Amino acid sequence: MKKTLLATAIAGALGASAAAQAATVYDQDGTKVDLYGRIAMGISGGGPEEQDGEAKSTGTEFKDVYSRLRLSGSHQLTTDLSAFASVEWRFRGDERDQSDGFREVRHSFLGLRSDQFGTIQAGSFDSFYNTFVAAPFDVYLDRGLELSKGQGGDLQARGDSLGYFTPDLSGFQAFIMTKHYTGNGQVAGSDGSNSSELNTQGGVKYEWGGLRLAAGFAQDRDDRALGGDGGTRHNYTGRDRRGADENIYGATASYAFNDNFSARLGYETQDTNDGAIDAGGDVEQYSGYDTWGLGASYSLGQWAFHADVYRVDLDNAEDERIAWAAGAYYKVSSNFDVFGELHRADQGDITVSTEDGVEVDENDDSVYWLVGARYHF
């Protein structure tokens, strides 16, 4: 029974109900098709202060909280082997969308699953490093995750990817995946900058009773598909999606003490790419970090609670930052839940390189807050 709460915590903030709420729209002759969706809306405010020239983002806002629609199917080929496919779209649930109705194809993949040989899949799907290693900390609906470089399922994934994970071998599982970046579309040259790249991630996971251990790595090469900085902020928020061309290594341990309480411990590190900085690269992009995380989840009847704290030591900052997150969730019914979340990034002062030298830009952030509701169908 200890695994029950742990699985709920890993799925994140009552998100485990997604599979249970999926409606089977077709099931005949070994072929099954499921439909799942949710509409989620909330009100938010606060967060990291904007820098000069950046769009304001800390004011109160009525927002969509990752509404989505998913269609998945499977077909039993043999008693052990099945083929499967899934596609999931995101849409704006809080306002009129005059474009195409959906703003993102979040997932789109197909594959083969065998209880004896494991699972292989290709397409656009979440980072296996996040799914297997950082998952115990990925429990918040919006902000709060510092592992996986703060990117969650986006970490060198979701597009042009191929992955494999073994079946459960007495509690052990291993995984490996790779994302392909094509050189097509890049300006041709003799320096090899337009060549294709493969970003690989892999690791192992072990579960026994209420204990869950996982460790892995993820190559973090420069993500050309995001156009450099991808329009994101600084490393200090933990949400910078640029690759530093250095591997990320991480490990987590979690334990469900009973059906109501579980705790988790995590560590992640990435070296500074001194060569890229010496060659004139952005200090913020290529600096490394060490992150320690400690958190817990507690459930009581229809209530669930999460709380996590992180110490992040950044190589390009004099002081570490202490970030934290907390959330409370209430399940009104099997289809409807309400939630509230808090997050403090505690981003430090930012070191900015200028033509006249190096300046320190004082930076501050308030607590980010989010309240809202979700309906699953």
Describe the structure.
By secondary structure, this protein is mostly beta strands. The chain has a single domain (40-66, 117-376), classed as Porin. The protein contains 5 helices and 20 strands. The strands form 2 sheets. Strands 2-4-5-6-7-8-9-10-11-12-13-14-15-16-17-20 form a 16-stranded antiparallel β-barrel. Strands 18-19 form a two-stranded antiparallel ribbon. β10 and β11 form a beta hairpin. It is globular and about 70 Å long. The two termini are 27 Å apart.
Query: How does the major sheet shape up?
Result: 16 strands, antiparallel, barrel
Radius of gyration: 21 Å
Instruction: Detail the poorly predicted runs.
Output: 1-17, 225-241
Q: Provide the spatial order of strands within the biggest beta sheet.
A: 2-4-5-6-7-8-9-10-11-12-13-14-15-16-17-20
CATH superfamily caption:
Porin
Signal peptide: 1-22
Membrane topology: Multi-pass membrane protein
Main location: membrane
Domain Porin: 8-347
Write a concise synopsis of the structure shown:
Strand 14 (289-300) and strand 15 form a beta hairpin. The protein has one domain (40-66, 117-376): Beta Barrel (Porin).
